[in-house]
Amino acid sequence: MYAIIDCNSFYASCERVFAPHLRNKPVVVLSNNDGCVIARTSEAKKLGIPMGAEYFKYKEYMEKNNIKVFSSNYPLYADMSERMINTISEIVPEIEVYSIDEAFAKLSGLPEKDYRKIGLEIKNRVYKYTGLPVSVGIAPAKTLAKVANFYAKRYPKFSNVLVLDNPTTIDQALGLLDVSEIWGIGYRYSKFLKNNNIKSALDLKNAPEAWIKKHLKVTGLRTQKELKGVSCIPLETVQPDKKQILVSRSFKNAVTDINEMKKAVSTFITIAALKMRKQHSNASILGVFVNSGRFAQARRPSEDCFKTAVLQTPSNNTFELIKIACNLVDSIFYSGYKYKKAGVFFSGLCPESGVQFSFFDTFDRDKFSKVVKTIDFLNDKYGKNTVLFAVQGEQIKLSTQEMLSPEYTTKWSDIIEVS
DNA sequence: TCTGGGGTCCTAGGACCC
DNA sequence: TCTGGGGTCCTAGGACCC
Asked: What does each C-alpha distance from A345 to A34, A275, A342, A410 come to in angstroms?
């Protein structure tokens, strides 16, 4: 038996933990640059705020209806996520952290056999310890657990915990579920399935396997088997290393100057390279892209400008990577255009310990790796951006966040005094 | 004026090997 | 009409997830 534990309106719920007067009040959280809505409490949903709603279009309506608006505060959410995961793993040791607000758990093998009781214990303890409201779905396969969670979250009579473990109840639940709600069935497939008269999850479960394999490939077949109660997607208890790392941002104000672009790209590199070092990987391919954004009038003919460099020696050294990235910017940046977005991309990741060195290497790896280690140490001890690279300029503001909550749980200056 | 940011897996087809 | 048979690696593109 598997459980999926999922926090309701996660980002908005995190904000509410530190603003108790907003309990039962409508709250939304915005994306970077305060662009659009990415989290809504049930009260905000009831007032008709759609997912992805453009803030500028709904601002007035939100003010009129007393909807509290927050800019996104990722350090806060990451910290709350960790607390949630720690609490869950006290009760169920075998868990897979699936996303910032979700975890799968294996329930078979626990001394307690009353699955509903386990679910309620998880829900109550997470709320008591962290203040976060979670829903728990429990079933013989991950996909079915997701179905159970869907109902647990929406129907008050289940008190946020639902166990689906007998065939009749499972078929009932699947019969009432739109095929597009199934985990693994996205926009394209659900449209295709509906055209072929497969409308509910139960229809999908009962469709011919060969036909599913042909049109939805093996992943679709796995989903179908899971709906039949055959577990095909195992629990991944160890988080595999990232195979690619991407850092990108939209700019509040379009970038037109190449040096401004280099500042931004260098900052993306420092973020991405730090991610690589944390998982002890080196990249063999570095990519940079710039573009005018989806809504631009004047775009370069190729629209997106993307260029990669292959590194003779895989690296995670910020000094070296910034230099290469800036050269790539030189080759893809055209003045006269307004760039709204840019990003960097690392792939061909390999373990730091298994790097093949080049005979003709000119970069002093030993020396610069010591410098980078020292920078990481200082930024870890005294807060990020304590030490910057000169090309980054004074710390650039990557995004606008007008309604940011304080970093209640992580802000360094509140914890230590730097003299 | 204003529209997010990360990821993964699978398949088909081309280039190449013997 | 017919054309050998069996492989691997890489990439682009399409699907999905949060």
From this structure: 24, 12, 10, 28
